[in-house]
Write a structure and sequence with these properties.
single chain, alpha/beta, Rossmann fold, 7 helices, 34% helix, binds adenosine-5'-diphosphate, binds magnesium ion, ABC transporter (ATP-binding protein), AAA+_ATPase
Length: 223
């Protein structure tokens, strides 16, 4: 499904040059769930952003189902992301002025689907995640675990094939963390492909493969 070859990324800060990714190779098969670990600042988010099409590599090849992603324009990347990718972040960026339903429905607004179908999709997604009871609540009234599930609902509403998660349990208490992990497992059992950046050994344990970014390279870890 995914092939990365010799991916490199350097950031420039004034005169300073930070070589973050120094030649990353990775293959991910459809239906796999993999963990990416590594110290803070090692380049995990940089790699995930490249996979999501939010950032472009300076060098190397990114193939997604035979499509050459590294050659796409920013416009094409935005479309690629919208159609194929569900992106889950640590700090669940929800829109405070909108309620839960509207936050989850947001990605569907671009696709011009009928209102009834939109409502059905959102309510189904909320019940799948066990949070139908918060549907009309304001998002600032939610617990951390609920807010993260709302953010996940929004990331999944378009049925993406690939789910990228950047420290999805990073700011959750233990109970919410367990719920989110069960959810990741469930999504994977349903055939979704997941790439999860994490510090959390529990997350890494439920993944099929574990990698670590070290000194700009991706190393496979024993399982
Ligand atoms: N947009 C940017 N501009 C300059 N430096 C950046 C940018 N994004 C990340 N970096 C730097 O690149 C390195 C890797 O960052 P990041 O991928 O966020 O690491 P991680 O997610 O593993 O903590 C860090 O040193 C960070 O400061
Ligand atoms: Mg990060």
């Amino acid at each position: 499904m995914i092939q990365l070859k010799e991916i490199k990324k350097t950031y420039f800060m004034g005169k300073q040059q930070i070589e973050v990714l120094k030649g990353i190779d990775l293959e991910v098969n459809k239906g796999e769930m993999i963990a990416i670990m590594g110290r803070s600042g090692s380049g995990k988010s940089t790699l995930l952003n490249i996979l999501a099409g939010l950032d472009k590599p300076d060098h190397g090849i990114y193939l997604y189902q035979q499509e050459t992603i590294h050659e796409k324009t920013l416009n094409d990347l935005a479309e690629f992301r919208r159609k194929r990718i569900g992106f889950i972040l640590q700090n669940y960026p929800l829109i405070d002025s909108k309620n839960v339903f509207d936050n989850v429905a947001l990605p569907l607004k671009y696709s011009n689907i009928p209102k009834k179908e939109m409502t059905d999709k959102v309510t189904t997604m909320l019940s799948t995640l066990g949070i139908e009871y918060v549907q009309s609540r304001s998002v600032d009234m939610l617990s951390g675990g609920e807010a993260q599930r709302v953010a996940i609902a929004r990331a999944l509403i378009q049925q993406p094939e690939l789910i990228l998660a950047d420290e999805p349990t990073g700011s959750l208490d233990e109970e919410s963390e367990t719920e989110i992990l069960a959810l990741c497992k469930q999504l994977n059992d349903e055939g979704k492909t997941l790439i999860i950046v994490t510090h959390n050994p529990h997350v890494a344990e439920i993944c099929h493969k574990k990698y670590k970014i070290h000194d700009g390279k991706l190393i496979m870890m024993p399982h």
